[in-house]
Fold this protein.
Amino acid sequence: MSSNDNIVIDDNYDGYRLELFCIPKHYEEDLENILIPSGLITDRIERLARDITQEFNDEGLVALCVLKGGYKFFTDLLDRIKMLNRNTEKSIPLAVDFIRLKSYVDDKQSGKIEVIGGDNLENLKGKNVLIVEDIIDTGRTMMKLLDILKSVKPKTVRVASLLVKRTERSIGYKPDYAGFEIPDLFVVGYALDYNEYFRDLNHICVINEHGKKKYSS
Ligand code: IMP
């Protein structure tokens, strides 16, 4: 069964001080705190993999990685599903596919997304697709992607997002599988970026004003 259960991080949660964990020196000045240490991410993904394998059957699934931000979650989630495949009676054939999206906003109300790379989506026709995304913020990107996928007629579509932001800007979209619900803050690390920086940080952290200024485009 799909589940909307996740770990909820409260608005008043301060995270962990940077000194308590290992941070690359080049980012020490640019982060407010560590919101989700990488060990906790790993443990949560282990459980998501178990929930996902319980829903799918031997028809298998095509895991669709939304680049670039989804790549770490995608590889770690698939590694866990493969481990379950090797070690339990039930095993789910896996195929992988990639899509790269460019999202931009025309005005405050309408986000537009464009597919700028990846495999031919026609390959997904008749398949059970699992979209693997890093973060749902307003939900507009995912709604548009689901719309694009509909045109190639997959058999089923499920969405796994590592993070879901709690924000007033949300259009109400909720993924089938979510790792953590987080406050309305800009987070980086674990492949999430700010202008292409911070993908090389393993914990999910809150960027500070210094970091935003330093890496602004
Ligand atoms: P949405 O369309 O508002 O849901 O935004 C989704 C996309 O915005 C994600 O796939 C990310 O690329 C980006 N995004 C939104 N919030 C964050 C954040 O806190 N950190 C990094 N990227 C973010």
In short: The pocket of inosinic acid is lined by residues 69, 103, 111, 133-141, 186-188, 192 (CB under 6 Å). The helical segments are 38-55, 71-87, 140-150, 209-214.
